Amino acid sequence: MNPLPVILFIPKNQEVFMFDKLKEECGVFGIYSEERTDVAVSAYYGLYALQHRGQESCGIVVNDDGIFSHHKDIGLVNEVFNKDVLAKLGQGKIAIGHVRYGTTGVSNRTNTQPLVVRHVKGPMAIAHNGNLTYAAELREEYELKGGIFHTTNDTEVISYAITEKRLDTGSIEEAVEQAMYKVKGAYSIVVMSPRKLIAARDKTGFRPLCLGKTKTGAYVVASESCALDSINADFIRDIKPGEIVVIENNQLHSITTHCGQKGQICVFEYVYFARPDSVIEGYSVHHARLRAGEFLYEESPCEADVVIGVPDSGLDAALGFSQVSGIPYGIGFIKNRYVGRTFIQPTQGERENLVRIKLNAISDTVKGKRVVLIDDSIVRGTTSARIVKLIREAGATEVHMRISSPPFVNPCYFGTDIDSKDKLIACRMSVDEICKEIGCDSLGYLSVEGVRTIAKDANTDFCCGCFTGDYPVEVPDEMPKDKFERKINNQLSLNID
To answer: What pLDDT, in 10s, does the model give residues 468-489?
Structure first.
C-alpha cells in the first residue's frame, strides 16, 4: 500500500520543477491620508494588485499617530491577511506594504517586509524593491562598527544607511538623501516615519515607482499603476530616477539632488514583470508586449495554423504575433489560478505532473495543427521542454517556439534571480541546440534591438545587461544570492570563533 501523500511547502530551489521563470524581487505600496482611516485596507488591496511581483511573503505597517502596528508572514496576500488581522492593525493616517520574492536572503519570516526599526530619533518602517550591488561590503562596514543584523536581505542594509545619517541630520528626508550617496544599485523604496511618508528611487531608475491620489485626497505610491487602480486612485506621475518624494501634512514636495540622468529601467518590466494593465514611464505594458509579438514575426516568421501564448505574459505577445502575421490566435492553455504554494510531494517519476497542475493544454485548439507557441523567456529550459511536450501530447503536428526577449547570457545584479551564468541554458547551447533540447521544430528569439524598441516612446532608456553584458552602473565581479548566508568555511573576511 502506498503511503499517504505529504503536503509540504515547496522551497525556492525546487520551484524549477514547476516553472523556471524569472522572479522579480518585490512590490511596494504606501498611502498617506489627511484623516485617520482604514489605511491598512487600502494597503491590502494595493498589495493584492501587486501580488504578481512577489508570492513568497507580504506585510503591512500602519502608523497611528506615531504608533506602528504591523503584521507580516510567509504566504500570499489573501493567506496572510483576513478581516480580523486588518481590524487588529487598526486605523491610521499612514501605511506601507510589501510583497516579496527574495532574490537575496532565505525564505523565512525574518526576511519578510516591511522592516520596522526603532531608534533614538523615533521609529521607521521601510519596504524595498530591487537589489543593492555592494550590499555585502556595506553590511560588513556596519557590522565592524557594532551593527547587529536580524535579516539577510538588502533592505536592512538600507535601513542602517538611513539610520546612520538620521543621527546627523535634521529630518528623515535629509537622512534618506544622504544615504543615497552610499547605497548603490537598484532600489525603489517607501519609508514611513512618525509623521511622514517618503518614496525614493535610485538614480538609474531600475525599478518602477509611481505616485497617485485617491478621490478622498490621500496620496499613494506604488510599484505599478495597477495598484492605484485597485483603490480607485488617479495616477499623477512616475517618480523620477533619483527623486525623493516627501508627504507630510497632506502636502507633497520632492528632493532632486540625485536626479539628472535619464532612467534605464529593466526592460523586463515590459516583457514580463509588470501587469499588462499597468502604465510605466508613460507607456502601456500591454502595448509593449503586443509590439514584441509583432517584431517577433518580422524577425522570425513561420508558417502555422494557430498562435498560442503561455499564460500570462506570453498572451499579449501572441496576440501581436497573430495580428501582424494573419495566423489565427487561439487559447492553447488553461492556467490553474487556485494553486498556492503547497503541493502534494510527487515521486521523482511524477515531477512532470507539477507543470500539469499549473497548465493544461486545450486539445481542440492545437490538435492536428502547426502551432506557434509564444513565451516571454527561456531561462533553464526545463519548463519550456515540458510545455512543448504538453502541446505535442495534445495533438499538435508542429511546434514553433518564439520568445519575446533575447537569450539570457549574463547575470542580473538589480533584483532578478539570475545570479550566475551556470543557470542559463543560452550560455551552454546555441539556439539550434536549445531548440533540439526543448523539443520544438523551430525556435526564434526577439533581438536586442527589437526588445529595446517595444516601448520606444517610454520616458526612459532600458537596462539590457542580462542580454548584452553592458550594465548602466558598475557591477561586482560576483554577487551570489547567498551573500549573507555563507557557511563559516566560505567567510574569509572575518575571523569567526
So the answer is: 999 999 888 765 555 555 444 5
pLDDT of residue 352: 54
Asked if residue 414 belongs to a domain, the reply is yes
Q: Does residue 470 sit within a domain?
A: no
Q: Are residues 116 and 243 in the same domain?
A: yes
Domain residues for the domain of 221 are 19-261
Measured between alpha carbons, how far is 373 from 364 in angstroms, rounded to an integer? 15
Give me the residues of the chain with pLDDT under 50, please.
Answer: 1-19, 105, 341-349, 351, 486-488, 492-497
Q: Are residues 414 and 305 in the same domain?
A: yes
Q: What is the pLDDT of residues 111-136, one digit of tens each?
A: 999 999 998 999 999 999 999 999 99
Q: How far apart are CA 281 and CA 225, in angstroms?
A: 10
- Cα–Cα distance, 231 to 30 (Å, whole number): 12
Report the 10 Å Cβ neighbour count for 144. Answer: 10
pLDDT in the model for residue 481:
52
pLDDT at position 22, please?
54
**Catalytic-residue membership of 26:** yes
Of 246, 261, 276, the domain-final residue: 261
Looking at the structure, do residues 98 and 192 belong to the same domain, yes or no? yes
Same structural domain, 161 and 310: no
In a domain, 82, yes or no: yes
User: Is 370 found in the same domain as 245?
Assistant: no
The answer on 422 and 389 residing in a single domain is: yes
Find the CATH number of the domain harbouring 386.
Answer: 3.40.50.2020
The domain tally of the chain equals: 2
Residue 394: per-residue pLDDT: 97
What are the beta bridge partners of residue 74? Answer: 57
Q: Has residue 144 been placed in a domain?
A: yes
The answer on 214 and 310 residing in a single domain is: no
CB 184 within 8 A of CB 473: yes
Same domain assignment for residues 314 and 408: yes
